[in-house]
Amino acid sequence: MEIHDSFQSFVVRFRPGGAMVVSAAGPRRPGDLRDGPPDSGPDHRPGTPEATAAPATPSVPARPDAGPRRPGRPCPRCRADNPYDRRLCVRCGTLLDGTSAQAAHRPLPWWRRLFRRGAQRPLTAGSRPRLSSRPRPRLMLPVVLLVLAAAAWFGRGQLSEVFVFAQDRTSDPKPLHADRFRGSTQAPGHPARAAFDGYNNRYWAPAAGGPGAGQYLEADFDQPVRLRKLLITSGSSAKEAEFLTQARPSEITVTLVSSEEAHSTRTVKLNDKPGQQTFDVPGTEVTRVRLTIGGAYGARSDRRVAIAEVEFFGRR
Hints:
Layout: E1 2-4, E2 9-14, E3 20-26, H1 49-52, E4 73-74, E5 81-82, H2 98-105, H3 110-115, H4 140-154, H5 156-170, E6 174-176, E7 180-183, E8 216-234, H6 240-243, E9 248-258, E10 263-269, E11 276-297, E12 307-315
Antiparallel strand pairs: 1-2, 2-3, 4-5, 6-12, 7-8, 8-11, 8-12, 9-10, 9-11
């Protein structure tokens, strides 16, 4: 607390202990702008060192996370630039991770660049992508459709064959029963029908003994069939004791005749053992099958070449 008058100034100070001290400050001059005692603070009058010195700038503590700015993270889906610390894309909401960011910098393969839509332009702040009211077909789609239509037109003749081939591969063959049977010759009691009756204890045999080369069995179908497999039971029976009593074919030439009288042949080799033996003999629109003997096991003049059973498998 200070008390002043016009001639003499007195300063009253209170010490912490409660004692009051009064001191004379001297006469107050008109040019003196200080209100306090001489030692109350720095002198800011012009010309003094305190007035000419530059004011001190307060220091700002450095931010602990201050450092070089990290590059943005491009979105792997829409290629929008995102801040490094974001987890979701600001445009499409795709999850941003390290793997996606690295994959975004890799060049796309040529086939993806060929069918990839045009790059979208970055949107300005506050704008949204425009939604098309009707889809616009790309040029590649009609071109592909035209190519497929042309291929179907020029290959219409082969489409049915492709369909039939796929059906043959995906379906199980069914038994096919011939309508008529005949043989080149037949021994008494061993007609051609005995080889197609479903029993393997009855057999067909030619009239003459020996190897029987050139003798044949033939089966006709009233409706064209698609043949896939042929089953042959060689010899006079499926039992081994009776199997060896007659000669057995070692080679048979299979001739397939179509409805248009087209012939296709295939030679199959038979093993000298009792039981069924299966052969693949694919044929289309088959109306007749001929089995011609080319050789025999155990052929003698007193033995005839015997075929116990012949079965066809495919579909009509």
